């Protein structure tokens, strides 16, 4: 075994990249070579995906632990501040925001229960932030979370889905209009389409109509991924059909404020 290989690496490659430009191995020198190949454009998209999978597998325990700690922080401090003074609540608002607390309370009022026993942090193999399942709860893709703010937005997005499932009896499997409506609401109300996130993280630099365009774009992508959707044109048509009523519907909030 050479210095550039590790016990967890795949078949020996003598420290040479495969046809994608990716070099298997967990040691620091191999990681540096892979990152250099990415930065200089020498690694293909397939190789970059191999690099990401290897990194996510290597960091799985640490990613899940961090995700669980941040999840519990949001849930714990949301609950505490629900009964503490307004001064403490204002301090909390500056750091994390009341979204998780408010959505949790709204879901409880509808007979639901979302907490750390059914909000799971896991390593995901597909590139998404999370998901909601009426039977099991919320999945958070720990390897995709950039920071606590990203986690809060992702939790809020999936909690809007949970609220809609309880309040509106969403047909998740067959009704694309239902799916489009809850995706519009989740992207609009969660904070993931706020101007700063679009501007700094996604390179969307428009100064007007940015929020609406972000919500529409993300809703179309989500609907397109559903098995009963034919193609992007079909997804766009369904989103347009429900846009006006669903974008205006801010329940359980009074307005869009994130």
UniProtKB/TrEMBL annotation:
Protein family per UniProt: Belongs to the peptidase M76 family.
Membrane topology: Peripheral membrane protein
Cellular location(s): Mitochondrion inner membrane
GO molecular function: metal ion binding; metalloendopeptidase activity
Predominant cellular place of this UniProt entry's protein: mitochondrion
Protein name: Mitochondrial inner membrane protease ATP23
Keywords associated with the record: Hydrolase, Membrane, Metal-binding, Metalloprotease, Mitochondrion, Mitochondrion inner membrane, Protease
Known function: Has a dual role in the assembly of mitochondrial ATPase. Acts as a protease that removes N-terminal residues of mitochondrial ATPase CF(0) subunit 6 at the intermembrane space side. Also involved in the correct assembly of the membrane-embedded ATPase CF(0) particle, probably mediating association of subunit 6 with the subunit 9 ring.
Residue segments, region Disordered: 1-25
E.C. code: 3.4.24.-
GO BP annotation list: mitochondrial protein processing; mitochondrial proton-transporting ATP synthase complex assembly
Record-linked Pfam families: Peptidase_M76
Top-level enzyme category: hydrolase
Biased composition (Polar residues): 1-17
GO cellular component, one term: mitochondrial inner membrane
């Amino acid at each position: 075994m050479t210095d550039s290989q590790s016990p967890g690496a795949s078949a020996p490659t003598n420290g040479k990249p495969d046809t994608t430009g990716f070099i298997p191995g967990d040691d620091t020198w191999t990681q540096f070579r892979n990152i250099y190949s990415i930065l200089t454009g020498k690694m293909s998209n397939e190789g970059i995906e191999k690099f990401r999978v290897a990194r996510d597998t290597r960091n799985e325990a640490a990613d899940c632990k961090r995700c669980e700690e941040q999840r519990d922080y949001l849930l714990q401090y949301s609950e505490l501040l629900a009964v503490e003074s307004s001064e403490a609540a204002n301090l909390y608002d500056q750091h994390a925001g009341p979204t998780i607390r408010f959505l949790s309370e709204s879901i409880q009022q509808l007979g639901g229960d979302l907490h750390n026993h059914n909000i799971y942090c896991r390593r995901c193999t597909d590139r998404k932030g999370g998901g909601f399942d009426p039977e099991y709860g919320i999945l958070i893709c720990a390897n995709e979370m950039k920071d606590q703010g990203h986690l809060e937005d992702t939790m809020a997005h999936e909690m809007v889905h949970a609220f809609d499932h309880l309040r509106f009896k969403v047909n998740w499997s067959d009704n694309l209009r239902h799916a489009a409506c809850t995706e519009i609401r989740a992207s609009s109300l969660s904070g993931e389409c706020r101007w700063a996130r679009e501007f700094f993280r996604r390179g969307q630099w428009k100064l007007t109509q940015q929020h609406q365009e972000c919500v529409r774009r993300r809703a179309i992508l989500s609907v397109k991924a559903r098995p009963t959707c034919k193609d992007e044109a079909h997804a766009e048509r369904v989103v347009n059909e429900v846009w006006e009523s669903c974008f205006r519907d801010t329940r359980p909030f009074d307005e869009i404020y994130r």
